[in-house]
Amino acid sequence: xxxxxxxxxxxxxxxxxxxxxxxxxxxxxxxxxxxxxxxxxxxxxxxxxxxxxxxxxxxxxxxxxxxxxxxxxxxxxxxxxxxxxxxxxxxxxxxxxxxxxxxxxxxxxxxxxxxxxxxxxxxxxxxxxxxxxxxxxxxxxxxx
Length: 144
Fold this sequence. Notes:
Layout: E1 12-15, E2 19-22, H1 25-30, E3 36-39, E4 46-49, H2 51-71, H3 76-91, H4 93-109, H5 118-136
Antiparallel strand pairs: 1-2, 3-4
């Protein structure tokens, strides 16, 4: 099996068993070794997936798979406790007020704050996870 390392403008890509689509100049210019090319079987259009984007997707899928694996070891009772605590937190105006305000701001402006700043997004995600985990951790240090 060979890997495609380079595309050239006009290069024929076979799809659907008996059809050919051609590589555009733009696609040929941007395709790099390690990138993927997906042929949409409905119409033969070409989807360029840069290696960096593949790495992001792989990391996300691996993390989700690991999380589901961890969830399989948690009892139904502990999951119920978590959702009950989560619902109680959301019913508290001090907790839900900032969420509602952020939702109103995002709905009115068409944007959510900090979306253009990945570092701030990561920090906020970390803070939220830490807060939930802190509330969710039992006395033996196990997360519910």
